[in-house]
């Protein structure tokens, strides 16, 4: 792995774990056991690091928010897809902590982040409309709009809620977010009692999460 890639992944890890505000370029260099000058050769301070990470995040979400096959998902696949969305945001979760503060410090990330959120909302709206048209999801147009807001809120903000109110590790934070989404979605799915029970068993098994995780951010460069 190239030095620039190692720097980005280390910065991402530290920003996610400790918050961007508390991590300095020197901290990143120390974590990598390189000189601050070496880091500066690749990235001219935190501004360029944050901008590069946002670019990675954009590329990642462009792939995840593809509508290919989205209108043919089976009910059990909805859970996998929602988990994929929460996992993708979770990889870059520091962008969704204190968004106003980050926007003030790094104006260049404002438009890309807004575009990601807008695309996420449109994707969720398309998903629920498609499910509704196939009589799989029972909800009025107004209710679907509220569901989009609710699911988007859970995807982008649940990690921050968990960090403030519990001691969940990263895996359990994502599982908790998925559970919040599914407890809202499942009552509206047109499934038999046995199908819902099977879906609940899949959710509580945690096994599916190993197969549904997103690739490394470097895969989107």
UniProtKB/TrEMBL annotation:
Question: Where does the HTH tetR-type domain start and stop, copy by copy?
Answer: 1-61
What GO molecular function annotation could you give as one example from this UniProt entry? DNA binding
What UniProt keywords are attached to this protein's entry?
DNA-binding
SUPFAM superfamilies per UniProt: Homeodomain-like
Q: DNA-binding region spans which residues?
A: 24-43
Pfam family, any one:
TetR_N
Q: Which domain of life is it from?
A: Bacteria
Specify the protein name.
Answer: TetR/AcrR family transcriptional regulator
């Amino acid at each position: 792995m190239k030095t620039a890639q190692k720097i980005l992944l280390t910065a991402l890890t530290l920003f996610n774990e400790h918050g961007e505000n508390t991590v300095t370029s020197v901290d990143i260099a120390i974590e990598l056991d390189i000189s601050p000058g070496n880091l500066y050769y690749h990235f001219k301070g935190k501004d360029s690091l944050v901008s590069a990470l946002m670019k990675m995040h954009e590329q990642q979400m462009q792939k995840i928010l593809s509508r290919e096959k989205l209108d043919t998902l089976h009910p059990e696949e909805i859970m996998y897809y929602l988990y994929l969305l929460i996992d993708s945001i979770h990889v870059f979760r520091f962008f969704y902590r204190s968004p106003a503060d980050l926007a003030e410090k790094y104006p260049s990330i404002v438009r890309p982040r807004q575009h990601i959120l807008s695309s996420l909302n449109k994707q969720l709206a398309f998903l629920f409309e498609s499910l509704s048209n196939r009589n799989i999801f029972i909800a009025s147009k107004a209710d679907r709009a509220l569901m989009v807001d609710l699911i988007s809120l859970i995807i982008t903000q649940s990690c921050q809620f968990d960090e403030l109110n519990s001691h969940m590790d990263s895996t359990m934070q994502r599982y908790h977010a998925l559970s919040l989404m599914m407890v809202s979605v499942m009552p509206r799915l047109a499934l038999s009692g046995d199908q819902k029970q099977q879906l609940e068993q899949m959710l509580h098994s945690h096994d599916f999460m190993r197969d549904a995780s997103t690739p490394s951010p470097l895969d989107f460069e």
